[in-house]
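MODEL INPUT / OUTPUT PAIR
PAIR INDEX: 1
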Amino acid sequence: MTQSIKIGIVGLGRAGWGMHCPELDERTDSFEIVAACDVIASRRERMAERCGCKVYADVAELIADPDVELVDIATRSCDHYAHAALALAAGKDALLEKPMTVSYDEAVKLREAAAQSSGHLFVRHNRRFDPDFLQVREIIDSGILGEVYEIQLARHSYQRRDDWQTLKAYGGGQMLNWGPHIIDHALRFLESPVADQYSDLRCVAAAGDAEDHLKIVLRGENGRLVDLEISGGVALGSPTYRVFGTKGSLVLSGKEITLRYLDPEQGLEPRTANPGTPGETFGQSEQLVWIDETLPVKAGTNHVIWDHLYAAIREGATYPISLDEAIEVMRVVSKAKEATGF
């Protein structure tokens, strides 16, 4: 028999109601929603009808509820720091939806608050478990592409968005929306501390004052480049993943992976550069044997983050997203925003 974790959800909008609730519906043996909080009365009523749980209009009252063991924070980005700090001050475990905070300084302060609390802080970088991301990492680790020297990540769309996610005052912008997920991917792909960072932020199509188009290029101390681009202003998008290695390449679009790599069975003779005058035709005499493959993205879901969370709280397992990793994401975010209007 499992001992379910009694959870209180703070914020019943697109994340709390639209994602967390249905994901938890799949894990009723592991988690029990005992309370929920939202400032909008109709949302509280809807939640009480759905789950039969207690509902609150005040975050502090939910945190003070003795039945709540884990505080699941799914409020607006600008409120994440304050709500997580309240939960930790009360000695409660807290699950914090991305972004961890709106700045690197706030993220560091939360780590300090967690160190002084009897509760634990967990950051929900659930896309660490996206099937396509995991499969691309498996292919890189297999070595068939040789030494990978550059990876390009893209999340493109075109939308004239006008909600709070377009306003700086509320922690809006693509940097804090898709950004934490894709920056986390980039840091995992980099496999090295960041040596250099280039960033460019723009507002292209959104109605607010926050960025809806961003590019970040990270160079690791190992020399590898990761180029990531997130945009709500691109009408014709790029592949989600492009990976370049010394022996092959990978492109992932939608649910399909295209590979081209040198046949590992082909013996390649050493070559040296010839400074002499070349012949009268272009090209090389060496005949390379290529393997071309098309693979479907494996089935799976990033909802398994709940299973890792349960194992960390109930079984003492190591939660796979460390606070240091989450804080490094926020360091990249804050550095990208430095000296810009965003």
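PAIR INDEX: 2
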Amino acid sequence: MKKSPNTLPLADYLKLVDPTDKMPPELAPVLFGLFGEVGSVMAASKKHHREKDVYTGFRDAAIEEFGDALWYLTAIMRRLQLPVDEIFANAIAQNEHQTAVAANDLPGWPIALAKRTVPPPELDPALLKLGDAAAGLLTIAGNQTNARSLLETFAAFYLQAVQASEMSFAEIAEYNARKTRGRFLPPDLAALPTFDEGFDEEERIPQHFEVRFTLRKSGKSYLQLNGVFVGDPLTDNIADPDGYRFHDVFHLAHAAILHWSPVFRALIKQKRKSDPQYDETEDGGRAIVVEEGLTAWIFSQAKHLGFFIGNDKLSFDLLKSVEKFVAGYEVARCPLSLWERAILQGYAAFRKLRENDGGLIVGDRSSRSLEFRATGGR
């Protein structure tokens, strides 16, 4: 039997997402954000309803967009200091509802009352009403007189749209809390996964490593770990040189900061062969292709952005694409904020390697850090 998401009281959801609200205190930016998310909700849920299980990505997109809309909705209430529980309770009272008594999974709260709109709302009308309610909310940027009433109306149509889309509200809230906390809160380094703890030293990524990049007159980049050449010499493999010959630095960043890199494991022959499951599914050829493909894709994005020079953060869309790339692999347990750290430190070192025609890259898993040290180039 498929495990259902745990019951998540809205008060607990708020405690989880309150620290992730880094937006300005003004209402307007948050209202615009909600309005934009409603458009995304309408597109994603319509596709999910039409395609059903043919394209599972549409369902995931619908859950994400409904979650983002919930985040903006609660952010508006936070700025207006309105109680979220009361808003939703009054929203339910606006329509005819059927009530079911359910066994609850919350200790101390044995019974839950589940409610749904009757008759069940149809998707198209529900989405149109949700869009109309979102437009109405824009008016409170200048006049907050009817803010509570407008928010209750929006919440009512939001719940109807969730029901019509056949989505789980608990799953939506859980996913959104996990995603936003992973993106906007600094990671707790002590609580992060290490992936190879419990394996013998020869099957672990080194706790500390120093890799020298040397660019020779041939234009090829060579790697040395502890004075031993590893991997194949690389060129940029493109007509317009862009420094991709140094791209192994990104695998080193993954290894040091994420504690994950099937490519680096293969280069230094540190695969977890004692466990056939890890050897095949996490350190094997497919995982290597995934990491190489992800690295190449990020590079294509970075190339148009000056290789992230001057950036101290990355776009949420880029990080969400990274999350989709690695879904199903152990590294998916790493929060997006840690991916951001790995990518930015990797590109800071990459820019130095290009500038100096090589150098020494020092990775430290304990501090989850990567740094460049000059060695004199060629």
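PAIR 2 NOTE: The first helix runs from residue 10 to 17.
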